[in-house]
Amino acid sequence: MNAGLFLVDTHALLWALGEPSKLSSRAAALIGDEENRLLVSVATLWELSIKQNVGKLELPEGFFDDLFGLGYERLAISDAHLTAYRALPLHHRDPFDRLLIAQAQVESMPILTCDPKVAEYDVDVIW
Predict the structure, then answer these.
(1) How many CB atoms lie within 10 A of CB 50?
(2) Whole-number mean pLDDT of the chain?
(3) What is the C-alpha to C-alpha distance for residues 110 and 25, in angstroms, rounded to an integer?
């Protein structure tokens, strides 16, 4: 695959940074290719912040500060993303995943995810 732009979902991000053996070989190769641009949604950062705050997730000290120094890029949430979000059918009930789907659709980029529910939408899923 040529170098490209990819949206990294929450599990793929956590596994890439802490348990890379859980990634598929294809996802690991794409994440490891320095020519690819890897985007992390603000929705993912929000989800991680919530889970950390309520004690469902432990993240290393400085995780949020260090993430973007590792080559990941932040994807803000735009009005176009929210418009697409509202138009999505309810195949998937997770609001964070649904926002990633909307962002991937609007930005015309695939999502790196192992979540089979995401593939029910009109979006390219790579795993």
Answers:
(1) 12
(2) 94
(3) 16
